[in-house]
Design brief:
Two copies of one chain form a homodimer.
Chain A: E1 9-12, H1 23-32, E2 37-40, H2 47-61, E3 67-71, H3 74-80, E4 84-87, H4 94-101, E5 106-111, H5 114-119, E6 127-130, H6 147-155, E7 162-165, H7 170-177, E8 183-186, H8 188-191, H9 196-211
Parallel strand pairs in A: 1-2, 1-8, 2-3, 3-4, 4-5, 5-6, 6-7, 7-8
Binding site for 2-[(2R,5Z)-2-carboxy-4-methylthiazol-5(2H)-ylidene]ethyl phosphate (chains A, B): 136-138, 167, 187-188
EC number (chains A, B): 2.5.1.3
Function (chains A, B): Condenses 4-methyl-5-(beta-hydroxyethyl)thiazole monophosphate (THZ-P) and 2-methyl-4-amino-5-hydroxymethyl pyrimidine pyrophosphate (HMP-PP) to form thiamine monophosphate (TMP).
Chain lengths: 212, 212
C-alpha cells in the first residue's frame, strides 16, 4: 500500500532561499502554517549531504504524518527511507525508481504540456507535477509558463492526482485549484517568505476558498 | 558472488575529454588497448542521460567480460544493471549502495590518506581507489597529491584490492604498481590521448614491466 500523501499544499525546498533561516526551521514553520507534503530539492548537493538533510526533515515530518519526497535521487530516497521521489523528465524513469523503492513508495513525475504527458510512460506514477504555471527563477531548466489553463489541459487527460507548480503564490493559487487539481506546489512563496508560517496559512486560505 | 573484476588498468571516463571522439569510440579503443575495468563518470549529467550512456557502455563491454562501474549514482547503476558503483567520501555510504545493489555488486570507495582510510566504514567495500597520486585538473575537489609513497601508506593498512588514481600516465604507472597495488586508474592518459588504444597499450606495458 502506498504511503499516504496529501497534495493540498506541497512545499518544495530551495537551498539558497532557506539558507538564512535554515532548512529545518523553514520547513517546521511551513508545517505549522499548514503544508501537507514536503519535497527536498537540492540539485547541487552531494549524496551524503542530501542524506543528512533528508534524515533531518524525516525526523521533523514523521510526528506530523507528513510525507517526505526526495527530488531526483532515488538512491538517497532509499538510503533514508523517504516516502517517495519526485522525478523530472530528465531523471530516472518512474519504473526504474519503483524497482528500487518498491510498491509502497510515492513516485511523482513532472509534466509540462499535454504533448509531454502523452509521451510519458505513466506506469508506476502516483501523481503529476504540472507546470510551470508562471515563469520562475527557481528552476533554470523549466519550460515556458502554461498558466492555470495549461494545468487544466493536462487535468482533462488523466485521473491521476495533480499538483500545479511553478511561480505559484497565494494570489494565483485559487485559479490553479480552479483548474480542477488536487493541490499546489510552491517554492519561493514559502521558502523566500519573511514569515513562512504566515505564507503557508495564506496559501491554505486561498486553496480553501477556491475549493468552496 | 561478486561480479568478477580486474583492477589492472582501470579507465575512468571524462565527458569533456571524450567529447570529440565520442564516449563509446574512446572506450572501445581503450578496451582494444588492454583496459580491464571501466567507470562511467559524468557528474553533471542528468539521470536519464547517464542511463543511456551506461547502457551503451554495458553493451560494448559485456562481450569482453569487462565490468562496468558507475560513479556516484547508485540508482543509475541499479537501473542499467551495471556491475557496480564507485563512491567518493561525499557520496552515499558503501552500505547504502550495497542495500540497493545487492550482494553481487562491486562497491569501490575513494580514500585519500591513511587518516581518511581510518575514518571510513569499509564494510561492504570491494576495492579502494587511492589518490590523487599526482595533481590533476580532471577533478576539482580532489585532495593534495600523495605520490606513490602515499599509495604505499594506505596499502600497508589493508588487504583490500587497491587501485592508484590521479594524474597517472605511463611514466609513473610503474612506480604506483611498485607501491604494491593491484592496478592503476587513469582518466586523461587515455581519454585525452590522440590514440587511446596505443595509450592503453603503453600503460599495460608499464604495468607488466613493474610487476616483473
Amino acid at each position: 500500500m502506498r504511503h499516504p500523501f496529501d497534495l493540498t499544499l506541497y512545499l518544495v525546498t530551495d537551498p539558497r532561499q532557506v539558507a538564512a533561516r535554515g532548512l529545518a526551521a523553514t520547513v517546521a514553520a511551513a508545517v505549522a502554517g499548514g503544508v501537507t507534503l514536503v519535497q527536498l530539492r537540492d540539485p547541487d548537493a552531494h549524496g551524503r549531504d542530501l542524506v543528512a538533510q533528508a534524515r533531518a526533515l524525516k525526523a521533523l515530518l514523521k510526528p506530523h504524518g507528513i510525507a517526505l519526497i526526495v527530488n531526483d535521487r532515488v538512491d538517497v530516497a532509499h538510503a533514508v527511507g523517504a516516502d517517495g521521489v519526485h522525478l523530472g523528465q530528465d531523471d530516472l524513469s518512474p519504473q526504474a525508481a519503483r524497482a528500487i523503492l518498491g510498491p509502497d513508495a510515492i513516485v511523482g513525475l513532472s509534466v509540462g504540456t499535454p504533448a509531454e504527458f502523452a509521451a510519458s510512460d505513466l506506469s508506476g506514477v502516483d501523481y503529476l507535477g504540472v507546470g510551470p504555471v508562471r515563469a520562475t527563477g527557481t528552476k533554470a531548466d523549466a519550460g515556458a509558463a502554461i498558466g492555470p489553463e495549461g494545468v487544466a489541459a493536462v487535468r482533462a487527460l488523466t485521473a491521476l492526482p495533480i499538483v500545479g507548480i511553478g511561480g505559484i503564490d497565494a494570489a494565483i493559487a485559487g485559479a490553479v485549484i480552479g483548474a480542477g487539481v488536487e493541490g499546489v506546489a510552491v517554492v519561493s512563496a514559502i521558502c523566500a517568505a519573511a514569515d513562512p508560517k504566515a505564507a503557508a496559512e495564506a496559501l491554505r486560505a486561498a486553496i480553501s476558498a477556491a475549493r468552496g
